[in-house]
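Sequence, please.
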């Protein structure tokens, strides 16, 4: 994934700026971030929230109603922006929330952008987000993220050094895990495995068709015995 090369951001004595990046919808848990800020006297006084991305009017109205309900005033809705503006905006951000519930994707471009920016990243602890190493992101309980978001943000206000150290670990990890060269190498390795396993897979499929044609199902002892012999012949470990 291409690095936007976001430079270092705020100084320790400035307000904590939190952002969510991407098209605004309910599964991004923006309401939970608003709830977390509104539930803390410390955060309400020293935290600004920036929602970066396109937002439908009804979604913004719903979130503004949540802001009023929780006494939160410092929320900025940017609407759609281009990549250059995104880079500029992220320069002024300290923490990026990549919360999801439910998860509707198998991967996340926004969490890669967040880690590459060198910012502290908060994620929901499940799916592709929960699989990230515990030392490069901070995880929040899915479906009830506000409690953990509040705890993490309050800790960042008290210790900016730990916040920036977390962001640097995230950047280092993302530059290794999501580098173009890493992707190409892994893809070539997959192609090699596919080529080497192809004949065995084709043989297994054809043998399965033959066994099925004579009425043997997958749970038949004879089929299981044949499968074990094929695994032994091909040097595979049985599942």
């Amino acid at each position: 994934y291409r690095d936007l090369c976001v430079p270092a951001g705020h100084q320790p004595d400035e307000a904590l700026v939190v952002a969510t990046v991407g098209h605004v919808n309910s599964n991004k848990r923006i309401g939970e971030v608003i709830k977390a800020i509104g539930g803390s006297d410390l955060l309400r006084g020293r935290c600004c929230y920036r929602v970066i991305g396109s937002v439908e009017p009804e979604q913004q109205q719903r979130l503004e109603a949540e802001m009023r309900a929780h006494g939160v005033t410092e929320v900025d809705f940017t609407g759609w922006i281009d990549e250059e503006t995104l880079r500029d905006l992220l320069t002024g951000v300290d923490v990026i929330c990549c919360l999801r519930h439910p998860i509707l994707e198998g991967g996340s471009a926004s969490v890669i952008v967040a880690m590459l920016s060198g910012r502290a990243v908060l994620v929901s602890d499940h799916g592709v987000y929960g699989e990230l190493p515990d030392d490069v992101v901070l995880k929040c309980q899915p479906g009830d993220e506000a409690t953990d978001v509040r705890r993490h943000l309050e800790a960042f206000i008290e210790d900016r050094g730990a916040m920036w150290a977390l962001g640097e670990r995230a950047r280092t990890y993302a530059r290794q895990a999501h580098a173009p060269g890493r992707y190409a190498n892994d893809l070539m390795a997959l192609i090699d495995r596919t080529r080497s396993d192809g004949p065995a897979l084709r043989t297994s499929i054809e043998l399965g068709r033959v066994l099925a044609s004579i009425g043997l199902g997958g749970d038949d002892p004879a089929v299981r015995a044949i499968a074990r012999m094929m695994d032994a012949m091909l040097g595979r470990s049985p599942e």
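The chain has a mean pLDDT of 90.
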